[in-house]
Amino acid sequence: MSKSLLSLAITAAVLSGCSLIPDYQQPQAPVAAQYPQGPAYSPAEAANQAAAEQGWRQFFHDPALQQLIQTALVNNRDLRVAALNIDAYAAQYQIQRADLFPAISANGSGSRQRTPARMSQTGEAAISSQYSATLGISAYELDLFGRVRSLSEQALQTYFSSEEARRSTQISLVASVANAYLTWQADKELLKLTQDTLAAYEESYRLTSRSNEVGVASALDLSQARTSVENARVQLARYTRQVAQDENSLTLLLGTSIPANLPSAQPLSADLLSELPAGLPSELLQRRPDILAAEHNLKAANASIGAARAAFFPSISLTANAGTLSPDMGGLFKGGSGTWSFAPQINIPIFNAGSLRASLDYSKIQKDINVAQYEKSIQTAFQEVSDGLAARQTYNQQLQAQRDFVNANQDYYRLAERRYRIGVDSNLTFLDAQRSLFSAQQALITDRLAQLTSEVNLYKALGGGWNEQGSQKTEVSKEAPPLKLF
């Protein structure tokens, strides 16, 4: 038996290097080598530090926002689920990889049986005993054609994909908290603007009402002044509701209540974000976790082809055990009580009605699907970055124009108010100036919010938000989880 086992072990060792997994070829990126150029885009600049290497504490300057992001990273439930998914896939990889090793188990048993006299060959009742202790290997498959290793590689790549999925979840969480916070601050500024405007409208209405009482202002002037007041009250109710809902959305993202010791928020007009270099499209392949996750899924599908190919070939499994057998406990480990069994089994597929061929075809189709998904993830990333770059340039121009528009409306309002006070112009011109200024100030806050959220989304699109502080190494470690033998 020992020679047979030795020769079988040598054969297995020789064939253990056999793998039917196709050579992996990274698909070509289906995007241009450069981001779009044109009037909507600023000139390309060299990137001293990639966005993915710029920590979120560097990118976001507002201390209140930094504290909220830190709170979300600790308490957010989606991020917690993503981390637990990594542990789950690590366990699945451990289960699959364990099939590469023989499962050894020890077993001890004992039995006593009484045979009645009429059933005994001697005509007398008899009591028989049997005790055994064995050490054995149960149905261990010799991985001659790499089927088990292919399945193990598939599980490993799925584990790597789950790590990238966690990175993607964290980056999305950082961006979501930032956008929710900025929306909250914008709505609070709009609420404050509406409160101030309502107070001005109400004062104007009181003045118009007095003028109407003495016959200076007409009923039409009074009605127009009241219209402005009621419209401002509608806006006040809307922004009050939106501020409350913004707080609820932010609380959900944080996974806990908004901290009571939150630092004072900086105004939207402050320098809230750092400048962000775009780099080159090729950098997205190494920076975007969703692209890396899609590539790992592609590698997992590639490995499954190897397992499907190996199923066409014979498989050999071994069952063996050795131990002692004795009719009494005392003689269990005495000389001459040894026992062993060896039961190799070979399975040769002959006819399966095309099942194996269909399984291989299915694996190849799944790989093609994953190739398309990988390419789509690259195209999506390219489009998101391109949109962000277009937004950056055009929002800078739009905001400057909107500031100039607000300044012009403020001049218009001051002149209209002065002329109305001295009786040169009617109340209609003054009310129009009030409404125009209010509308322009609202649009300025809204445009500033849109600019900030577009910069945050560009930071996310470039793979930023994974590190807390700036770092030159942002890649997830591509090492298999440690093998636990017991």
Describe what you observe in this structure.
With 486 residues, the protein is α+β, with helices and mostly antiparallel strands. It is 59% helix and 10% strand. The chain has helices at residues 2-15, 56-59, 63-75, 77-97, 147-213, 219-254, 281-287, 289-310, 355-421, 427-461; strands spanning 104-115, 126-142, 315-326, 338-347. A four-stranded antiparallel β-sheet has the order 1-2-3-4, with no helix packed on it. The longest helix is centred in the middle third of the chain and has 67 residues, at 147-213. The chain is elongated and about 135 Å long.
Tally of individual helices: 10
The pLDDT mean sits at 87
Shape: elongated
Distance between the termini: 29 Å
Radius of gyration: 37 Å
Could you list the spans in which at least 5 consecutive residues all have pLDDT below 50? 1-10
| Biggest β-sheet strands, sense, barrel | 4 strands, antiparallel
**Helical percent range?**
55-70%
In spatial order, strands of the major sheet run: 1-2-3-4
Strand tally: 4
The secondary-structure element order is: HHHHEEHHHHEEHH
Find the structural class using helix and strand composition: alpha+beta
What fraction strand?
A: 5-15%
Provide a quick synopsis of the model:
By secondary structure, the protein is an alpha+beta fold.
SSE topology:
Blueprint: H1 2-15, H2 56-59, H3 63-75, H4 77-97, E1 104-115, E2 126-142, H5 147-213, H6 219-254, H7 281-287, H8 289-310, E3 315-326, E4 338-347, H9 355-421, H10 427-461
Antiparallel strand pairs: 1-2, 2-3, 3-4
Any key phrases for this structure?
486 residues; alpha+beta; 59% helix; disordered N terminus
